Structures are given as C-alpha cells and as structure tokens.
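quick q for whoever's on today - can somebody do inverse folding on this one?? i tried earlier but teh output was garbage lol. tokens:
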C-alpha cells in the first residue's frame, strides 16, 4: 500500500525596512510508491553450471 503524505512547507519570509513582512508557504503531496521495473533481458543460449551471465533491466521511479 503506497504511503501518501501531505505536508505544508515554509518557503520563506520577506521583511522590509519598515518592519512589514510577508510569509510564503507551499503545499506538497508525496506519493511514496514503488518503482516500476521493466523486463529482465539476458542471452537465451544455454550455459554450463557455474558460468557467469549478464542480465539487464530498466526502471522508472515516479
């Protein structure tokens, strides 16, 4: 089950020389989901037991 977190972060505060100030904030939603793994590819030819092979894949992390 993905973790969804909503946070309010203080971005900054600006003060002028007369003592006035403005504060800025932003809301952020974090969707902590697992990366998507693509297909694993390797040679299809048979190899002897104990022989090293090379395999590769790709992934995206939304």
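ok took a stab at it. sequence:
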């Amino acid at each position: 089950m993905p973790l969804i977190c909503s946070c309010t972060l203080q971005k900054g505060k600006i003060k002028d020389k007369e003592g006035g100030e403005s504060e800025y904030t932003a809301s952020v939603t974090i969707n902590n989901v697992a990366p998507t793994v693509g297909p694993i590819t390797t040679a299809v030819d048979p190899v002897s037991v104990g022989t090293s092979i090379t395999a590769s894949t790709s992934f995206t992390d939304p």
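fwiw The chain is about 0% helix and 55% strand. also Residues 30 and 48 are 47 Å apart (CA to CA). so keep that in mind when u check it
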